[in-house]
Design a protein that fits this description.
2 helices
Protein backbone atom coordinates (compact mmCIF):
# COMPACT_ATOMS: atom_id res chain seq x y z
CA UNK A 1 0.00 0.00 0.00
CA UNK A 2 2.87 2.37 0.78
CA UNK A 3 4.34 2.02 -2.73
CA UNK A 4 1.07 3.10 -4.33
CA UNK A 5 0.85 6.26 -2.20
CA UNK A 6 4.01 7.92 -3.56
CA UNK A 7 2.97 8.04 -7.24
CA UNK A 8 -0.45 9.32 -6.21
CA UNK A 9 1.13 12.06 -4.10
CA UNK A 10 3.36 13.12 -6.98
CA UNK A 11 0.37 13.19 -9.31
CA UNK A 12 -1.61 15.35 -6.85
CA UNK A 13 1.33 17.76 -6.47
CA UNK A 14 1.60 18.05 -10.25
CA UNK A 15 -2.11 18.84 -10.50
CA UNK A 16 -1.78 21.48 -7.77
CA UNK A 17 1.11 23.14 -9.62
CA UNK A 18 -0.95 23.19 -12.82
CA UNK A 19 -3.88 24.79 -11.00
CA UNK A 20 -1.58 27.40 -9.43
CA UNK A 21 -0.17 28.31 -12.85
CA UNK A 22 -3.68 28.70 -14.25
CA UNK A 23 -4.67 30.92 -11.33
CA UNK A 24 -1.67 33.17 -11.93
CA UNK A 25 -2.54 33.41 -15.63
CA UNK A 26 -6.15 34.25 -14.75
CA UNK A 27 -5.07 36.96 -12.30
CA UNK A 28 -2.79 38.52 -14.90
CA UNK A 29 -5.49 38.53 -17.57
CA UNK A 30 -7.95 40.19 -15.18
CA UNK A 31 -5.38 42.80 -14.13
CA UNK A 32 -4.61 43.64 -17.76
CA UNK A 33 -8.28 44.36 -18.42
CA UNK A 34 -8.64 46.73 -15.47
CA UNK A 35 -8.18 50.43 -16.21
CA UNK A 36 -4.98 51.95 -14.89
CA UNK A 37 -5.55 53.96 -11.72
CA UNK A 38 -5.31 57.70 -12.22
CA UNK A 39 -2.57 59.10 -10.07
CA UNK A 40 -3.14 62.47 -8.55
CA UNK A 41 -0.09 64.74 -8.77
CA UNK A 42 1.70 65.17 -5.47
CA UNK A 43 1.61 68.74 -4.26
CA UNK A 44 4.65 70.17 -2.51
CA UNK A 45 2.81 73.38 -1.68
CA UNK A 46 3.61 74.47 1.85
CA UNK A 47 6.37 71.94 2.40
CA UNK A 48 8.91 74.70 3.09
CA UNK A 49 6.53 76.98 4.98
CA UNK A 50 8.41 79.12 7.48
CA UNK A 51 11.85 78.24 6.08
CA UNK A 52 14.09 80.91 4.62
CA UNK A 53 16.56 79.86 1.93
CA UNK A 54 19.38 82.30 1.31
CA UNK A 55 21.69 82.70 -1.69
CA UNK A 56 24.50 81.16 0.34
CA UNK A 57 22.33 78.08 0.99
CA UNK A 58 21.80 77.70 -2.75
CA UNK A 59 25.50 78.11 -3.51
CA UNK A 60 26.41 75.56 -0.84
CA UNK A 61 23.89 73.09 -2.30
CA UNK A 62 25.32 73.61 -5.79
CA UNK A 63 28.83 72.97 -4.54
CA UNK A 64 27.81 69.77 -2.78
CA UNK A 65 25.82 68.50 -5.79
CA UNK A 66 28.10 69.48 -8.62
CA UNK A 67 31.45 69.79 -6.79
CA UNK A 68 33.92 70.51 -9.63
CA UNK A 69 31.29 71.32 -12.31
CA UNK A 70 30.11 74.63 -10.75
CA UNK A 71 32.49 77.57 -11.03
CA UNK A 72 31.85 81.11 -9.74
Amino acid sequence: MRKNTLPQSIDVLHKIETIEERIVDLKLSVLRKLPAPKKKPLSLKGILKGITISDSDIEEAKKSLYSSKVKN
